[in-house]
Specification:
The protein is α+β, with helices and mostly antiparallel strands. It has six helices and 28 strands. β11 and β12 form a beta hairpin.
């Protein structure tokens, strides 16, 4: 009896293995693809308005593109102001305007009511420096603007219709300001640089340097559900623990990620405490700030299989349309949608039928064959069938990580 039971158990195990979909470590698949232009746009990034409805992209030769977050094929014509390279943008918390910064001290103001673009400040307000980063503080009373030379200003509109810009004290040694991000709940802002490290700007506009000086930081997000901000650099991820009562006491924890399949070039919000790390060559890694862990999301091999030409483009921005779905924007202006890989419904149904018929015959074998039941693939299948949503999500991540390790 034991011999027959083990044989039946082995057959069921084989059926489970055969029914499992064969794919790479990607948790999602690419689907729709379109382009914002027939020519290379040279985009440098994008930002989503506070309502989550519109995406404002910016790039070389003062290019600005406005598109619907749900359907990027819906676009709004935008004026061109000059021929400079635009490097960063941020919406005011109220969502009615956005600041866009770039070369030669350029600061533009976009107004959402009529989609107009005007000069928000004069070049002389920033000494003609190339501006590289901008972020509004939590209340929208001041915008912080960083430059290629390491300067940081706070700026707001003046009563005469111009701009009031004040240079902050406590600056670094002159390395480029690559990122500025202000937390939506904690009254602190985080600054990333090329070699001066990471700094905190407190509510009194004072700068506090807290570490991370050996890394050139190139991406920064501050999840609204946690008192942390996350930065990327090369193959490293830094988590900044924000101390609202004492900004200098904020901490930095840095982890180097091995086997990511590329170099980190930035990070963008997905949902709540989850973010998408951008890599070159074209791929994505999911980072969960809640558990400070990273997981494969979209593998370059799957991008190559989808479209070999697009796989050579650089990911500049991503945004979410649902928890595990969204859009990718490249430097050339290509937009691609991603969503979870559909389950193999017919295989699941067949497998369920096999288990229902054979279960009464193998229950004793299951009890006597505990070591066999500990197979990771069988454990994964069972979890996906009867586990909680959190258990299912962790099992998916763990399965992708095991496949990567075997490679």
């Amino acid at each position: 009896m034991a011999r027959v039971t083990c044989l039946l158990f082995a057959m069921i195990s084989a059926a489970i293995l055969l029914a499992s979909p064969v794919n790479a470590e990607s948790a999602v698949m690419l689907d729709e693809m379109d382009s914002l232009s027939s020519t290379d746009l040279g985009l440098n990034g994008a930002t989503v308005d506070p309502s989550g409805r519109w995406v404002l992209a910016y790039g070389e030769e003062s290019i600005l593109k406005m598109m619907s977050a749900l359907d990027p094929s819906i676009q709004v014509p935008m004026p061109v102001m000059g021929e400079v390279s635009l490097s960063d943008a941020d919406y005011h918390p109220g969502g009615l305007t956005a600041l866009v910064v770039g070369e030669d001290g350029t600061v533009l103001r976009y107004a959402s009511d009529d989609h107009s673009v005007t000069d928000a400040a004069g070049n002389e307000d920033f000494g003609g420096e190339s501006l590289t980063a901008v972020a509004w503080n939590q209340g929208g009373s001041w915008a912080y603007i960083g430059s290629e030379n390491g300067s940081i200003w706070r700026m707001r509109a003046s009563s005469d219709g111009g701009a009031e810009a004040q240079l902050l004290e406590g600056l670094g040694t002159g390395s480029s300001i690559t990122e500025i991000e202000c937390h939506s709940d904690v009254l602190l802002c985080v600054v990333g640089t090329t070699y001066d490290g990471i700094a905190i700007i407190d509510r009194d506009h004072a700068i506090h340097w807290i570490g991370g000086g050996i890394y050139p930081w190139n991406g920064l997000v501050c999840p609204s559900t946690m008192d942390v901000c996350v930065l990327t650099s090369g193959n490293a991820i830094a988590t900044v623990g924000l101390d609202s009562s004492s900004a200098p006491s904020s901490s930095v924890s840095i982890s180097e990620i091995s086997g990511a399949g590329g170099v980190f070039t930035g990070i963008e919000r997905q949902t709540e405490d989850r973010s998408m790390v951008l890599l070159t060559p074209f791929s994505l890694v999911e980072h969960d700030a809640r558990i400070n862990a990273s997981f494969p999301w979209l593998e370059n091999s799957d991008v190559v299989e989808f479209d070999s030409t697009v796989s050579g483009e650089r990911v500049m921005f991503t945004w979410a349309t649902d928890r595990d779905s969204g859009w990718v924007l490249t430097d050339r202006g290509t937009i691609l949608s991603f969503h979870p890989i559909p389950e193999d419904s017919w295989a699941d149904g067949l497998l369920g039928l096999i288990v229902m018929i054979a279960f009464p015959l193998v229950i004793l074998g299951v009890v006597l064959s505990i070591p066999m039941s500990m197979s990771p693939k069988i454990s994964h299948w069972v979890t996906m069938k009867i586990g909680s949503e959190e258990e299912k999500e962790f099992s998916k991540r763990d399965s992708r990580r095991r496949r990567r390790t075997r490679k």
